[in-house]
Every structure is written in C-alpha cells, then in structure tokens.
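Figure 3 (text version): structure tokens given as input.
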C-alpha cells in the first residue's frame, strides 16, 4: 500500500469501501490487496471478447471460499450448478453483497474482477433456464438483474451473470477482517439531542475511513458511497447524456426540528401499516445559497416547486446525475416513499408518493 503501488491500492480499497450497502451489515478492515496476473487466463479473456455481441466491460465483485479463490485465480471460473438465473457465474456491483458469508464461507477474501458483459439481457424475475445457448440465440452475452426488482421475484441489489467462463478474470484479491465493531447507520438518533442545528464540511480525503464516533462523518461517508455507486449505475445503464460527476465536498446538515417531524411521520406510517423504510435520493435545485439555506432550515416547500411534469410534488431521483439536471445545488436526502403509486395519473390521493420510471 506504500510506494509505487499506493495509488493502485487506494483505488481498489475505495472501490470496495464505497460499494457497501448497509443492509448487508458488512464493515471490513482491509488488511491486504493482492494483484493477480495469469497470462493464460488473460489470453482466454481477450479471445472471449471477440465472441461478444456488445462491448460493455466493467469491474464487478465475486465472493467465494478459500478453495474457490485458489481455483479461480489459477484455472479460471467454472459454471455453477444452479441459481435464480441458471447455472452461470454471478457477480455483484455491491462489494458487501459478494462478501456475504453464504458465498465466502469464512475465507475473508473478496475477488475484484474484470467482466465482459457485452450486450446484456435485463431480467426482472428469476429464470432458472437461462444458459449461454439461449442467450446467444437472442443476441445477448450476459444477464443483468437490476436492483429493487424483488416485487417481481427479482433481486434487491444488482446481479450480473455470465455463462462463458472466459468472460471474467480476477484482477485483485482483497483480504479483510471484520473484527472491528459495526459502523452505525446515519440514523438521526445518533446525534446529540442538545444540538438543534449543525453543519460540517468534508472532502473525499476525509472519508477514506469511517469514524464511528462522529455521526456527521458517518453520514458523509454514506453520502459519498451512495453517490459514487449511483454514478457508476448511471453509466452502467449506458446513458451517454450524463457526464461523469465527482464529489468536491459534502456539507452535512443536522436539523433537530426536521428530524423530529421525519421520525414522527415514520411512526405514523408504521401505525398505519404503511411501508416505513427510508431510501436515499437526491434533489437538484439552483446553486443559490439563500435557496439552499431555506430548504435546509425549513424543509421543502411546494410553493417553490416549478416543474410539475408528473403531478404536484417535490421531485427526487436515486440518480444524482438526473437531479443535477434540475440545478447544480445537489441535496442528498432520506425519503419515506411509503405506499408508492406507479402510473400516469397526475394525482394519487390513496398513495404517499409516485414512482416515475425512466423513459
């Protein structure tokens, strides 16, 4: 991690730490990163590239036990015996998903892989009959199961599946331990009750490590990780109209009054048997200090909402680049979607929010 390879080490370290989803409850201490070079597998990988229908290539994570780590790095991947999407090789965008104990079986190792996804077939529900022959006959190279497709018997977090073993190779083995205490979520009750309004600025260099005793820093760490994950997701979905964005700084806001009303609404949802799990999303507005200060101190106000293409409301997106289209003042929020409406009506009185699918 020092000397001539320190930049490479930090790049992989950050890609792992910024791809953690808190529901997996995985908070690693990375102890070593090994770079893998295997000329035989490199050659097979390049030969597989020539068989693709598309040109999409990306870095993904794969979890396996110690025997798997040794076998894959020496002889390459092998097809599994089954799964939600058939007998393929499964990869994740989220490091914490691949690092689950069900996959690693205590190896405390995570494989960082380069994967030739080519032209992928998006699937919203399980299909155990998927295989290389069926995909190729339809003109596809891999399968993509998008996040939040649980409602249609899909997955909660992204999965990618390939059926040609040579379409992936291991670039790095990440060694870690999980003996340190869990990192707290950015829950509002972590803040001192005596402070009514507080702000604190962070730069990306402040967020390489998580300081569990500083709730504001933990919140910034979550925001940084979510932003980078969703930026990658935007480009993974091949939306060329969005340019890659980078974080320069994050200002964390603690507003006790707004936190109280938010938690009260959450309790109301629970009492009414309405889904009460919050999500992270972004709101874009003009980068004007008076406008931003008004929102941060008084919350969102419908009287200022100008664009109402999908009905009256305050507009948010889980993709930062989408929200930046409304203004360069980007606000990272926790939302309670509650009971979601998915349709074309301009009002939805029986629901708490409206979901607008991308065109």
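Below: residues designed for each position.
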């Amino acid at each position: 991690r020092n000397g001539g390879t320190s930049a490479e080490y930090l790049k992989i370290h950050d890609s792992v730490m910024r791809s953690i989803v808190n529901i997996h409850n995985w908070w690693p201490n990375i102890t070593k990163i090994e770079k893998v070079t295997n000329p035989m597998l490199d050659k097979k990988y390049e030969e597989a590239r020539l068989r693709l229908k598309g040109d999409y290539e990306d870095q993904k994570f794969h979890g396996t036990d110690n025997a798997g780590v040794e076998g894959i790095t020496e002889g390459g991947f092998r097809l599994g015996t089954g799964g939600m999407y058939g007998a393929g090789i499964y990869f994740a965008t989220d490091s914490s998903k691949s690092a689950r104990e069900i996959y690693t079986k205590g190896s405390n190792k995570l494989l960082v892989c380069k994967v030739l996804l080519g032209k992928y077939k998006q699937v919203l529900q399980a299909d155990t009959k998927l295989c290389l022959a069926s995909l190729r006959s339809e003109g596809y190279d891999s399968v993509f199961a998008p996040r939040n497709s649980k409602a249609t018997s899909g997955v909660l977090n992204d999965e990618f599946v390939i059926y040609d073993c040579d379409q992936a190779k291991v670039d790095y083995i990440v060694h870690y331990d999980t003996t340190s205490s869990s990192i707290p979520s950015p829950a509002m009750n972590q803040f001192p009750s005596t402070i009514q309004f507080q702000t604190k600025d962070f730069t990306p260099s402040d967020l390489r490590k998580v300081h569990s005793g500083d709730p504001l820093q933990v919140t910034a760490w979550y925001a940084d990780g979510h932003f980078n994950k969703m930026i990658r997701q935007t480009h993974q979905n091949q939306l060329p109209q969005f340019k890659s964005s980078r974080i320069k700084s994050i200002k964390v806001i603690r507003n006790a009054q707004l936190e109280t009303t938010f938690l009260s609404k959450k309790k109301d949802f629970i009492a009414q048997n309405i889904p009460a799990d919050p999500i992270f999303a972004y709101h874009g507005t003009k980068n004007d200090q008076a406008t931003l200060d008004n929102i941060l101190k008084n919350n969102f106000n419908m009287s200022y909402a100008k664009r109402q293409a999908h009905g009256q409301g305050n507009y948010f997106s889980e993709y930062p680049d989408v929200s930046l289209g409304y203004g360069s003042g980007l606000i990272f929020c926790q939302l309670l979607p509650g009971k979601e409406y998915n349709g074309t009506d301009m009002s939805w009185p029986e629901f708490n929010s409206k979901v607008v699918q991308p065109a």
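The chain has a mean pLDDT of 86.
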